[in-house]
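hey m, so remember when u said the C-alpha cells were messed up on ur end? i reran from scratch. heres the input so u can diff it against urs
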Amino acid sequence: MSEIFEAALGYRRRGWSLIPLGANKKPALRRWKPFQTKPANEAKLTKWFDGKGFPGVAVIFGSISGGLGSRDFDDMEEYLCWSAERPELAATLPTVETSRGRHVYFTVEVDCERRYRAAIGKPAGIGALNCVGGELRIGVGSYSVLPPSLHPSGHKYKWLTSTANFPRVDLFDSGFGPCNREVQREPKTLEDGEGFDGNDVSDLELSAAPSDAIASPPEPPLCLEYSLDSLPSLLQRRVELALERTTPTKDGFRHRKLFELCRELKAVPEFRENSPKAMRPIVKEWHRRALPNMRTKAFDETWLDFVEGWPKVRNPKGEEPLTMMFAKVAKMEPPPEAAQFETPEVRLLVGLCRELQIVAGRGPFYLSTRAAGGLLDSSHVQVSRWLRLLRIEGLLDEVSKGSVATGQASRYRYLGSL
C-alpha cells in the first residue's frame, strides 16, 4: 500500500470527503462537485490512489467534512505574526508545512461561517476568502492539499503537529480574517430556519441572502490620514515589513527604493484602491528613516516622487511577471533537457529559463538569483550554483553579469530546445 493511499484511507475514516489531485495541484477529476455532497467510498479511493496512483490528495471543506476549514499562510512572515498574537491557538490547531508557509486546520460551525461572511460584506459568498499572504478556506467550494501530497517543486506536505483533534474555532476570535484585519462581530440577524442554508448549493452558486438579513456593506479602502497606530496590529506589521525592506541604506537609492515602497504597499489589499494622499503617514515615516542615507532632504521632493509613482505601479510586490511565469512553468512538463537533473528545483529552473527565453525572443533575458531563489524556496547562493551547473551543461550562456552597483540582474541566453 502506497503512503498516499494509506493516508487517504485514514482521512476517509475521519469522515472527510476527498478528491485526487494531479501533479499541478489541480483536481484530477473532470467534475469534483458531486463529492461536495457525497464522499467517495473506500472502493473509489482504492481506484484513485492504489490503482491510478495519483500523486496528491485533497479534502473538500465544509459540512461534508465535519465543518473542516483551513487558514492558508502562503507567506511565512504572516504566519509568524499570527502565531505570535495567537500562541495558544497556534499550538493547538493541526498545522501542515508547505513549500512556502503553513496551512492551519480547524472546524467551524455553519452558523458561525454564515455570520462571519455577513460581517465582511459577503453574505452569499462561497469558497475561499482572500487574505494577506494567503486565503481563508471555509465552507462550500473550497478544498486544500493534504499530506503526504507532493508540491510541483518536489516538496512533500507534512503535518507538524498532532492530528488527534481538530478543534472548533470562533472565526471572529481567530485572527484569521480576510486581509488579516480584525472583523467586527455582528449580532445574529437571522432566526433559526430563516435565510439560506450554507449547504444549499447549485452549480457552486448560493442564492442571495434574504431581504431581512442585515449584512455589513463592503469596507472602503483604509484611509491613513490620521495615524498608523489606528491600523489593526497585523496590518501594522505588514507596513513595518514594507518600511524595513525599502528604506535605503546608502546614498543614491532614494528614488528606486521609494518606488519599491509603492509596490510593497500596492500589494496590500486594503491599500490598493487608496489615493496616494491617504498613504502620506507611511511616506512620512519612510522619509524619516531614510534621511541619514539621502542627499535629497526635503520631504516635498520625496512626497512628489511617491504621488507620481503610485499610479505607475503595474506589478505590486509578489505579482511580478516572473512570479506569474513561474506559476505557469510549475504546471507544465519540464523541457526534455531537464530530465538529466535529479533535483526538482533544478528542473523547474530549466523550465523557467526556457520560458524566459521564449518571451525574450532572440535577445537575452534577465534573471536575478534572489528573485529565482524566492520562487524556488532556496538561497540566492544555491541558485547561483545551479545556474553555473546549467552553463557547464551547455544549457545556458551568461551574456552579462549582474551588479549590485547598477541594480541590474545578470543576462542569459537559453541554449536548449524552444
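this time it looks ok to me. Residues 179-226 have pLDDT under 50 and may be disordered. if urs says something different then somethings off w ur setup not the seq
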